[in-house]
Amino acid sequence: xxxxxxxxxxxxxxxxxxxxxxxxxxxxxxxxxxxxxxxxxxxxxxxxxxxxxxxxxxxxxxxxxxxxxxxxxxxxxxxxxxxxxxxxxxxxxxxxxxxxxxxxxxxxxxxxxxxxxxxxxxxxxxxxxxxxxxxxxxxxxxxxxxxxxxxxxxxxxxxxxxxxxxxxxxxxxxxxxxxxxxxxxxxxxxxxxxxxxxxxxxxxxxxxxxxxxxxxxxxxxxxxxxxxxxxxxxxxxxxxxxxxxxxxxxxxxxxxxxxxxxxxxxxxxxxxxxxxxxxxxxxxxxxxxxxxxxxxxxxxxxxxxxxxxxxxxxxxxxxxxxxxxxxxxxxxxxxxxxxxxxxxxxxxxxxxxxxxxxxxxxxxxxxxxxxxxxxxxxxxxxxxxxxxxxxxxxxxxxxxx
Length: 401
Description:
Layout: H1 4-7, H2 21-36, E1 60-67, E2 72-75, H3 95-108, E3 123-130, E4 136-142, H4 148-161, E5 165-172, E6 184-190, E7 194-198, E8 201-205, H5 215-230, E9 241-245, H6 251-259, E10 264-269, H7 272-284, E11 290-293, H8 296-304, E12 313-316, H9 324-334, E13 338-343, H10 346-354, E14 359-367, E15 377-384
């Protein structure tokens, strides 16, 4: 992939773009596999990397707003907003037009960009979610509700010009912080969610729920986890219990319920919006599963102490901080034989594995979720080992790739 913004020096967020992609993948894979080598069960080898396209893959666009009311500029948060990046080649077809439409809307509605230095203005960020079918959810992050009347007045023109936009919301973010969005979301037009076909299921993403940025790679991730769990059917009882902790919109849980139809799959997530989306997806596709709003760690510890005890298998897909010492300690002592851990931060995965010496990696794949960057992800299959001495108790710090 080539990008004129990178070549001109206007944007350097794709830090590895000058490196051929095979070398990008080899470099990232080598770092992950070296970092996690102490936790690999003897005789286990890594699977092939999970890859997607090198361009047009970003399902979510987060654009900071600069410039003037009459000439707004959309660039990346945290960078100098001197160049407009609406035509970034990482975005799928249709996103550039929607971003240009958002700029036209704010010009007509006279919504001034937020000036960080002066702490004045209104429009902070423009956020877009794109589905593989070419539909879009548009979010305008504003400092206050003051411009909403003007925005509502001019919304029909935007929607008529861009019929791919299925929903528009305003996010109110009054604080002067580096956070991209605030806590208050106001529905302005269209549907309550956007349907995003991911792997073998359709997920329903609401404005403030987390959605994997790379839809194609996310689908491969969900299928891999479900495939691993389906291979364990013979070791399960007639109605195995499988928990998906940090389930988000339910991608892992829904795929697992399809792959292991005899299982009782329960997804737990602290975000109420995400759980509403997961429940909507399960109902719309008639996939038997249960989704609950709760803290994943607290729920697991509490539920395992109940009459049904711990589950037969656990899926964890935590944020970058990892599952942490409390959930790691519970998994280590729980007796759960099989765990699938999808990690967006291999370093914290290594820390968590060091706290679970009875669980060793018996399968794993490097995940290229963000091509052209040093960001690495990984999915591993863990099996309780009869030889806890086969894994290390302290993580090996290999640094970043």
